[in-house]
C-alpha cells in the first residue's frame, strides 16, 4: 500500500514539508543539522514512501559523518505523516534503508533519537561518540552491521571529510 522510491531532486520540497509538519519548529537549529551543511545526503539511501494517491506518507534520509578517522552514516531525519503513524511505515523505512546501507558497504549507522523506539532496530547507546552540543548523550545511538564495528570508534562527530 506504500510505494518506496529513492528520493529524486523533485521530491526534495515535499519531503521538507513533511519534516516541517512532523518535527517541532526550528528543527534545522538542531546540532545534527550542522553536520549536514554543505554535505550531500547519501543518494541511494534517501527513500520516499508514497501512498495509493501518490502523496508522501514517509521519508528517510542519511548523511555520512566523520568520527575521528572513522566514517559512519547518520540516520535521519525520518518521519511519517501523522495520518499514517503507527502503521509500521517508520519501521519499514528504517529496515529497508538499513538493509540497503549494509548492501552498499556501510557498516556503522548512528542517530540522535529516542532509545525506546530505536532499540527495536538494534540501536544502543554509543559511549565515547560525541555529537556537537547541545545533544543529550543518552540519545546518541549506534547500530553495527556486525559485532565489534563500533569498537574503538570514539571522538567528536564532525562533518564528513573525504578520507
Ligand atoms: C517516529 C516515527 C518516524 C515512527 O514512525 P511510525 O510509522 O509511526 O512507527 P511504526 O508504525 O513503525 O512503529 C510504531 C511503534 O513505535 C512506537 N513509537 C513511535 N515513536 C516512539 C518514540 N518516540 N519512543 C518510543 N516508541 C515510539 C509506537 O508507540 C509504536 O509502538 P508499538 O509498535 O509497540 O505499538 C513517527 O512517529 C514520526 O514521524 N514522528 C515524528 C518525527 C520523529 O519524531 N522522528 C524521529 C526522530 S528521532
UniProtKB/TrEMBL annotation:
<dbReference type="InterPro" id="IPR000182">
    <property type="entry name" value="GNAT_dom"/>
</dbReference>
<dbReference type="InterPro" id="IPR016181">
    <property type="entry name" value="Acyl_CoA_acyltransferase"/>
</dbReference>
<feature type="domain" description="N-acetyltransferase">
    <location>
        <begin position="2"/>
        <end position="146"/>
    </location>
</feature>
<dbReference type="GO" id="GO:0016747">
    <property type="term" value="F:acyltransferase activity, transferring groups other than amino-acyl groups"/>
</dbReference>
<keyword id="KW-0808">Transferase</keyword>
<dbReference type="Pfam" id="PF13508">
    <property type="entry name" value="Acetyltransf_7"/>
</dbReference>
<protein>
    <submittedName>
        <fullName>Putative acetyltransferase</fullName>
    </submittedName>
</protein>
